[in-house]
Amino acid sequence: MQKFYHIVTYGCQMNVHESEKIAGNLVELGYENTDDMYGADIVVFNTCCIRENAENHAFGNIGMLKKLKSQKKDMLIAVGGCLTQQLGKAENLHEKFPFVDIIFGTHNLYKFKELVLLKEKQKKAVMEIVDGDMQIREGDKPFRTSYPNAWVNITYGCNNFCSYCIVPYVRGRERSRKSEDIMAEVRELISQGYKEITLLGQNVNSYGNGSDALSFPQLLKAIAEIDGKFRLRFMTSHPKDFSEELAKVISENPKICKCVHLPVQSGSNAVLKAMNRKYTREDYIDKVKTLKKYAPDCALTTDLIVGFPGETENDFNATLELVKTVGYSSAFTFVYSKREGTVAAKMENQIPEDVSKRRIMELVELVNSLTREHSAKYIGKTVEILCEDFDKKKNMYLGRDEYGRMGYFESNTDVIGEFVNIKITKANGVSLIGERI
Ligand code: SAH
Ligand code: SF4
Ligand code: F3S
To answer: So what's the pLDDT on residue 136?
Structure first.
C-alpha cells in the first residue's frame, strides 16, 4: 500500500531546502507527498526559532495533532529543525508532547532516513540531537519543490554571533561546501531545466573562509559562466563582508540578478554596535554607493529590527532616515524578540511592547510607501518575468523579474518555467499586473 508524507516548514529558505532533503529521504523509503496532513502516514515539522512567535506557532500546531494521533495510532510524527536544536528544547518537547515519535536536530538531518527506520522497529520515541557541527555530506538527492528555482547550499552555520540572534547556536560554525561540488550541482540542475539558482548561506559573502581556494565573488563568477539561460541569486549577504569585487562581479555578469538582499537591521551606530554587526551606518551607506556605482539599477532589499534593547527614539529615527536614504525596493521588518542564550537577552533596557509596536507600525508604513513608489515606476514598462506558478484564485500566471518584483499575467498556454515579457499595466502594492507581449 502506498504510504504518504506531509511536511510542514517554518522559517527561512535554508529550512525550505532542508525540507526538500527530508522529502528526498522519504521518497527513498517509498513515501509519496500529500498536501493533506490528515491523510499522511508521516507528518514532519521542520521548525524555526528565530523569534518567539515562530516557536509558539510550531508548538501550537504540533499540539493540535494530539487528537489525530490518538485516532490514527500508526501515523508517525517527526519534529526537527532549529527549535529542537536549542538547549533543552528537545526534552521539553518530548515531555509536553509524548506522542511525537521522532525528534531530531539540525546536525543530524542527513540521518533522517535511519531515524525513521529505527522508529518503525521500536515502540519508544526516537530522540537524537547531535551537538557537534554537521559534517558536510555530498550526494543527497533532495526532492525539489520549487521549480523553476533550485536552492543550492554554499555554506552552513554562522560565526557572526549578532547579539540578538539564535542561529549560531542552533546551526553551528560556518562551513563551506567545496566549489567543485557546488559547480557540479548547479551544472546538473541547469541540464535538468532549472532556470533560477539561489545560493544559500547565512552569510554567503564569507564563503570559503580558510577552506576553499575560491572567494565568494570568484565562486559567483564561475557559476555565472556556466552555459545556459538561467538567473543567479544569492542570500544572505552580510554588509561587513560585502566587497567592491562582489559589486563588480554582479555588474559584469548578466545572469546575476541585479537585486541584493543586504540586511542592515538598524540605522543607529549605537544599536549596530550593541547588535555586534561590525559595521557603522556610514560603512553601510558606502557599500550601497559602491554597489550602485557598478550596478546603478541594482535593487536593494533589507531586514530591519525595531525595539532592540536600549533603542532610543533617536536611534529609531536614524533607522527611518537610513531606509529613506537607501530607498529599498522592499524590506522585512521585525520586532526584536528575546532569545534565551543570546547576549542581547541579558541586556538591560528591554523595550516595552507598546513602544516597539508603535515603532514597527511607523516603519512598516514607510517601507510600504517605498514599495508602492517602486511599483508605480513600472507602469508602462516591459519586463522579463520567469514564470513560477499559476494562481487559481486570480486565474493568472505569476513570476518575478530580475529585481525580485512579482508580476501577474494571463496566458492561454502553460508557461511555468519560461521567460516571458509582460507590459505592466497596473501596480498593486508589492505586485505588478501586466499583459503578455
Ligand atoms: N543570516 C541571515 C538571516 C538571519 S535571520 C542574515 O544575517 O541576514 C533573518 C532575519 O531575522 C535577520 O536578518 C534579522 O533581521 C531577524 N532576526 C534575527 N534574530 C531576531 C530576533 N531575535 N528578533 C527579531 N528579529 C530577528
Ligand atoms: Fe544571525 Fe547575524 Fe548570523 Fe545572520 S549573520 S544568522 S543575523 S548571527
Ligand atoms: Fe532559518 Fe529559523 Fe533556523 S530563520 S536558520 S529556520 S532559526
So the answer is: 86
Query: CATH code at 74?
Result: 3.40.50.12160
Can you give the pLDDT at residue 430?
84
Mean pLDDT score across all residues of the chain: 95
233-242 mean pLDDT: 96
CATH number of the CATH domain containing 228? 3.30.750.210
Supply the pLDDT for residue 285.
98
**Could you tell me if 190 and 240 lie in one domain?**
yes
The number of folded domains in the chain is 4
**How many whole angstroms from 394 Cα to the centroid of ligand 1?**
32
Mutate to test the pocket of ligand 3, among 10, 12, 164 (most ligand atoms within 8 A of CB): 12
> Is residue 262 scored above 70 in pLDDT?
yes
Best probe residue, ligand 1, of 12, 236, 303 (max atoms within 8 Å of C-beta): 303
Give the Å distance between the CA of 414 and the centre of ligand 3.
34
- Angle of CA points 133, 139, 145, to nearest 5°: 95
Range of the domain at 31: 3-128
pLDDT of residue 212: 59
d(CA 162, ligand 3 centre) in Å: 14
Specify whether 23 is located in the same domain as 98. yes
- The set of cell numbers assigned to 9 is 516548514
Q: Kindly state whether residues 203 and 291 are assigned to the same domain.
A: no
Per residue in 97-147, pLDDT (tens digit) is: 999 999 999 999 989 999 999 999 998 999 999 987 777 888 889 999 999
The vertex-208 CA angle with 269 and 187, nearest 5°, equals 120
Do both 15 and 109 map to the same domain?
Answer: yes
Q: Which tens digits make up the pLDDT trace of 221-232?
A: 999 999 999 999
Q: Are residues 303 and 414 in the same domain?
A: no
What is the separation of C-alpha 210 from the centre of its chain, rounded to a whole number of angstroms? 25
Give residue 209's pLDDT: 81
Q: Do 408 and 387 meet the contact criterion of CB atoms below 8 Å apart?
A: no
Residue 140 lies in a domain: no
Tell me, yes or no, whether 120 and 21 share the same domain: yes
Q: Does ligand 2 come within 6 angstroms of the Cβ of 38? A: no
Phi, psi of 77 (to 5 degrees): -120, 125
72: its cell numbers = 490514527
Could you give the CA distance from residue 375 to residue 236 in angstroms, rounded to a whole number?
24
Domain at 342, CATH number: 3.30.750.200
Instruction: In whole angstroms, give the CA distance from residue 115 to residue 109.
Output: 10
